[in-house]
Amino acid sequence: MGILSRYMRVPRPRRFLYFMSLRTGVEMISLSVVFNKLTGFFGLLAVLTGLRLSPLQLSMYIYCVGALILVAFLMPHIRKQSPFQCLALAWFYALDTIINTAFTSAFAVTWFLAVSADNANQRIPSGAPGSSTIDDTAGFTSPQHNASEANVITSPAAGATTGQEAVAYAIANSAAATASSPSLGHGVGIEESIPSIVVVAFLTLVRVYFIFVVMAFARQALRQYMYTSSPAKLHLHTDGAAETAADNPFAVGSPEGAGWRGKLGRIMVKVGENYWLGGQADEAWAKGLDGRFKTTKTAGGPPGTLERERRARSGTGPPVPPPNVVKA
Question: Looking at the chain, which terminus has fewer C-beta neighbours within 10 angstroms, N or C?
Fold first, then answer.
């Protein structure tokens, strides 16, 4: 059972792409989110030019603008490693990945229906999300004439020395007679659709890895804050004992636990509490912090010398003899 729980736990990367720090990785991920959400800002500007948007597209652009403002507010706290802001950034990126995947899936379904409709020389089904905008702007749907070839025949005009009469006729598209109605399965089965699906799936997997990186950095920020703010935590590993769960930095009565931020912080930590606060101190900063309180001296005196020195420094040794006691 212990082996199963070890392999089923949430991944906790220690480095970004195996050679950069988590902080650098989170900064780069946040910059990618900023560039991605800028499309919402330019999308709203397109409305001013008279472009007609579907309700789904308009809601996506409004969400992107709000997400852009939130990320711009949280990014400066990455270097400060503020516990509340780093935890909020981790939760936002996880939720943003889910929302972004939902929007991408909705528009992908409509696009495959548009490709299928083009092959069938029909309109995109009106029930598809964003179908009206894609139908207006795609440029290859809803043809006015069902023809696959056009020919022009010219002949001299009667009663004119210069000039010709032209007659244009079209050859009907034979595929239109046999094509079925637009469907998602037909659009996905088209050869050109397979590379698009592979690219979207790969980028989704990359975002899942980014989620683990941002969550690991937020976990590191939480535990580092507790180590630096709690004097008791600084002496946990001087005797080589295993680490217990860290205290909740948003607990009632703590500096970070006051007001609405404290309530929201407790909610965010409560979901996955064992991940945020539990486990071993496997981070490099924790090992370096513990090293400050471990001695590298070898025992060069009588047995028990190092133990007496440790107790004397910590104030737990035997009481000092009174001054009137004379050594024998």
Answer: C
Identify the bridge partners of residue 172 per DSSP, sorted by sequence position: 147
DSSP code, position 244: -
Phi, psi of 144 (to 5 degrees): -75, -30
pTM: 0.70
94: CB partners within 8 A, 6+ apart: 211, 214, 215
Q: What are phi and psi of 166, to 5 degrees?
A: -120, 140
* 169 phi/psi in degrees, rounded to 5: -140, 155
pLDDT category at 8 given cuts 50, 70, 90 is: low
d(CA 313, CA 295): 13
* Amino acid residing at 282: D
Contacts of 308 by beta carbon, 8 Å cutoff, 6+ apart: 317
Q: How do residues 16-28 score in pLDDT, each as one tens digit?
A: 999 999 999 999 9
Q: Considering only CA atoms, which of 6, 11, 48 is closest in space to residue 217?
A: 11
Q: Per mean pLDDT, which range of 4-18, 131-145, 258-272 is the poorest?
A: 131-145
- Which residues, 6 or more positions from 57, have their beta carbon under 8 angstroms from its beta carbon? 43, 130, 133
Helix (H, G, I), strand (E, B) or coil at 281: coil
Which two structure tokens, joined as six digits, stand for 60? 């996506």
Going 126 to 127 to 133 to 135, the CA torsion angle's sign is negative
Tokens standing for residue 176: 């239109």
Distance CA 23, CA 282 (A): 16
SS (H, E, C) 264-318: HHHHHHHCCHHHHHCCCCCCHHHHHHHHCCCCCCCCCCCCCHHHHHHHHHHCCCC
- The C-alpha atoms of residue 186 and residue 119 are separated, in whole angstroms, by 9
313 burial via Cβ count (<10 Å: 0-12, 13-18, 19+): exposed
Structure tokens at 102: 């939902």
Q: Going along the chain, which residue ranges are E strands?
A: 147-156, 164-172
Interval 118-156: pLDDT, tens? 776 677 666 666 666 666 665 555 555 555 555 556 666
The token pair that represents 282 in the structure block = 């496997």
> Is the Cβ–Cβ distance between 26 and 217 less than 8 Å?
yes
